[in-house]
UniProtKB/TrEMBL annotation:
It holds the Pfam family GGDEF. Residues 1-251 form the EAL domain. PANTHER family: CYCLIC DI-GMP PHOSPHODIESTERASE PDEF, SIGNALING PROTEIN YKOW. InterPro entries: CBS_dom_sf, Cyclic-di-GMP_PDE-like, EAL_dom, EAL_sf, GGDEF_dom, Nucleotide_cyclase, Rev_trsase/Diguanyl_cyclase. SUPFAM superfamilies: CBS-domain pair, EAL domain-like, Nucleotide cyclase. GO terms for molecular function: cyclic-guanylate-specific phosphodiesterase activity. It comes from the Bacteria. Residues 431-558 form the GGDEF domain. This is Diguanylate cyclase (GGDEF) domain-containing protein. PROSITE patterns: EAL (PS50883), GGDEF (PS50887). It comes from Actinokineospora iranica. SMART domains: EAL, GGDEF. NCBIfam families: GGDEF (TIGR00254).
């Protein structure tokens, strides 16, 4: 019989590494902060004397760093054995520059455990400064081509160049525990985590937090959109290779609370936010084998039958399958025959799809299969997990309800709370920004002259112009405060373009010309301390903008009484005619 020890010895012999016998492995789960479900496990080497960094440092001094690292990776795979969850392995950056050596010794260990390259996530760790950049990028590309998934570990506390995130586009980024320790009170830590969350949202990269120790950290991460986390707080009891049993009660309550009340989301949740591990078997599996698997895993909804590349071929739903094969003659008739005879064609969706896209994919006829799992695949159509339709329906519904509750029914713009939060965020990040107030001059005269319906049409038109501007200007956020009042926060280099869209265009409703006033306050770093203060300083500027006749734009700054009139003519505005409002200039 081929043993784990003999596999290790054989694979390491050619590279002259004496495998250190006193290294054990712990397996820490990586959990979804939305569902609390484990989505992967990380293998952590635990030398019986000293730490893992001491072992690697000694190997480096002996000129055997890469060989020892490969040895540890192989031992971790063998120690983990078979499993449905992806396995995360830590590798120093230098090892990734020798992908052929790494893969040569990983192959027999993967064969021993029945795993495929796609089942491994290679977490690349510092130091990065000691490796040739081109060799690292090429090595990572080679590993990805072979099916391995890539992650960067210790982001924020090592020597990882941020430009590598651009060149490599990892599948996962892990935020170092040092940054997590500063949450939620340290504004600098908060700003860095927010920046990484924005990068991951825009690139489709998954983001994980390491070293979560406190409940307020977990709440903060959930609100920031960090969907994966690991740490002592999340471990609870465990069995096997780090598979968590029920979470500690306070943590479970936080996850449940955050799922329901985590604030107005910036977008509809992604399918990946609801990802659960899939139970997969070969497409040629017999009914008896599938039945045994379902009996061993009572919590799963079904089994995904996959081809040799891991692509889903059939979907076996638990209830219908068991009814078919466990009747009086079911076992005798079906046990040795392919389980595919009682399977359905798989419902498949890509991991980067939104929850809404998932719901659109499911036709009315499929709703009788609402209890089944939907299979999630990557860009190569390989199964990476499943989602439960009922959870996605709930998540999308909650997101839409929260968004709708915050929108003005006339313009579908959010209220002042959204700009309030955005201003406070920019103050915390020490950013320069502009806050502006836009309203219609003599709006009461519009309603009195051409009617409320025409006034509503005008407000809708202004709302559409602001929505279009916010869509095209990435640093601009807009809100409808009420009536004819709109609130705006924008980057300094965007305010002129915004003013051109709002002030320079002619406004008209029912043939009646209308002018608007734009008051803006340029807020330098530390010039205002809060949204409330910015609002107080903006109020007199609004009055000065209204005093300029014609469509106007005035600009001021905290700490000075100087006001620049950038549009309109100073001086008292003439009274509007009986049936029209006057537009100057």
């Amino acid at each position: 019989m081929v043993t784990t020890a003999s596999i290790i010895a054989n694979t390491m012999h050619d590279i002259g590494v004496t495998v250190v016998p006193d290294v054990d492995f712990a397996f820490q789960p990586l959990l979804s902060t939305r569902t609390g479900e484990p989505v992967a496990v990380e293998a952590l080497a635990r030398p019986k004397s000293g730490g893992i960094y001491d072992l690697l440092r000694a190997a480096g001094k002996a000129g055997k760093l890469i060989e020892t690292d490969i040895s540890l990776a192989c031992r971790a795979v063998l120690a983990a054995g078979e499993g449905d969850l992806p396995l995360h392995l830590n590798l120093v950056a230098a090892t990734a520059t020798t992908p052929d050596d790494l893969m040569r010794f990983l192959r027999p260990t993967l064969a021993q455990t029945g795993r495929q390259p796609r089942d491994l996530v290679l977490e690349i760790t510092p130091p990065f400064s000691r490796v040739h950049r081109a060799e690292l990028v090429n090595g990572l590309a080679r590993l990805r081509h072979e099916g391995y998934r890539l992650a960067f570990d210790s982001v924020g506390d090592g020597d990882l160049p941020l430009s590598l995130l651009v060149d490599v586009r990892p599948d996962l980024v892990k935020i170092d525990a040092h940054l997590i320790n500063g949450l939620p009170d340290d504004t600098a830590s908060l700003a860095v985590v927010e920046s990484l969350a924005q990068y991951c949202t825009r690139t489709g990269t998954r983001l994980a937090a390491v070293g979560v120790e406190a409940e307020d950290q977990l709440l903060c991460l959930n609100r920031l959109g960090v969907r994966l986390a690991q740490g002592n707080l999340l471990c609870g009891a465990s069995e096997g290779n780090g598979i968590s049993l029920p979470l500690p009660r306070p943590v479970a309550e936080i996850i449940e609370l955050s799922t329901h009340t985590g604030g107005v989301p910036s977008q509809v949740p992604l399918v990946a936010d609801f990802l659960r591990p899939a139970t997969t078997m070969p497409e040629y599996a017999t009914a008896e084998e599938v039945r045994d698997t379902l009996a061993e895993q009572p919590s799963v909804n079904g089994v995904v039958l996959v081809d040799s590349e891991g692509r889903p071929v059939y979907s076996v739903e638990r209830s219908r399958f068991l009814i078919a094969v466990t009747g009086p003659y079911g076992h005798a008739l079906n046990a040795k025959k392919p389980a595919a005879r009682h399977a359905d064609s798989p419902r498949v969706i890509h991991a980067d799809a939104t929850g809404l896209q998932l719901l659109e994919m499911v036709s009315d006829a499929d709703w009788e299969r609402s209890g089944e799992d939907v299979i999630v695949v990557d860009a190569d159509e390989v199964c990476i997990g499943v989602v439960r339709l009922t959870e996605v329906v709930r998540g999308v519904a909650e997101a839409k309800i929260e968004q709708a509750a915050a929108l003005n029914p006339l313009t579908r713009l959010p209220g002042s709370e959204s700009v309030d939060r955005e201003i406070d965020r920019r103050i915390e990040r020490l950013e320069m920004f502009v806050v502006a107030w836009l309203d219609v001059d003599s709006f009461k005269a519009v309603n009195d002259t051409v009617g409320f319906a025409a006034g509503d049409d005008l407000i809708r038109s202004i709302g559409r112009a602001l929505t279009d501007a916010a869509r095209e200007l990435p640093g601009t956020r807009v809100a409808h405060v009420g009536g004819d009042d709109f609130l705006i926060v924008a980057d300094l280099d965007e305010i002129a373009a915004l003013a051109s869209r709002l002030v320079d265009r002619p406004w008209m409703t029912e043939g009646m010309p209308v002018s608007v006033s734009l008051a803006s306050l340029v807020c330098g770093v530390r010039s205002v301390s809060s949204y409330r203060e910015a609002s107080r300083l903006l109020a007199p500027l609004k009055k000065q903008a209204k005093a300029v006749h014609g469509s106007s734009w005035v600009l001021g700054r905290p700490g000075t009484d100087r006001v620049e009139i950038l549009r309109g003519r100073p001086g008292p505005a003439p009274a509007p005619p009986r049936h029209a409002l006057h537009v100057a200039g």
